[in-house]
Design goal:
four-stranded mixed β-sheet, 9 strands, 200 residues, alpha+beta, single chain, 60s Ribosomal Protein L30, Chain: A
């Protein structure tokens, strides 16, 4: 019997949404070490928790509560998820966009990278896109957290205005933490004034 890590099954279910449009299936299976966690599957109509090995729930549409959990055997799991689980996942694609000093305005060279990001997203749909704002060490911590969030939100807006669904974009702000180039405090650095875009 195959033992699929739970994360693969969740991914498989996401891919089934695109393939079936009206129905998706989520299954909970043991991790490689045999441990079984719990997954809560929710939509607008309600939620169902599955917490036993090889349990599944079916989501038929947004207005119907996910089905009561049922247990399936190894052959059924293979039929539902085998093709996806046995296909190697491509690694995430990373992009770095740089900004003008003390600003949420992209540098022109970074703005030109937008088509590459859009192409990467289109090639991996359905997907998640992480947009993470950063600053250099000029200014105090609170200011830099706010500035890096403005930068991340500016990139999010560019993506949404280009047709990317807002609900697949995760936005976060690191301020002057996680510097790309390590510097002392109050040091201007163009490489650190950035937004990282990670396409999964």
């Amino acid at each position: 019997m195959h033992r699929y890590p739970s994360v693969w099954i969740v991914l498989a279910a996401m891919m089934l949404v695109a393939a079936c449009s009206h129905r998706s299936v989520v299954a909970l299976v043991p991790d490689p070490d045999g441990a079984v966690g719990q997954v809560t599957v929710s939509n607008a109509a309600g939620s169902i928790a599955i917490d036993q090995a090889n349990q599944t729930t079916v989501i038929r549409d947004d207005q119907t509560v996910p089905s009561a959990p049922t247990t399936v055997d190894a052959a059924q799991l293979e039929k539902l998820f085998g093709a996806v689980v046995n296909t190697p996942m491509p690694p995430p694609v990373h992009f770095i966009l740089h900004f003008q000093s003390d600003s949420d305005q992209l540098l022109p060279v970074s703005r030109k990278a937008l088509p590459k990001i859009l192409t990467a997203i289109a090639a991996r749909m359905p997907t998640r896109v992480s947009v993470i704002g950063h600053t250099d060490t000029v200014g105090n911590e609170a200011y830099n957290v706010a500035l890096s969030m403005r930068r991340a939100q500016a990139v999010r807006k560019l993506l949404v205005d280009s047709g990317i669904a807002d609900n697949i974009i995760d936005v976060s702000s690191h301020g002057e933490e996680n510097l790309l180039i390590k510097t002392a405090d109050n040091v201007a650095n163009a490489q650190n004034r950035r937004v990282e875009v990670v396409v999964r």
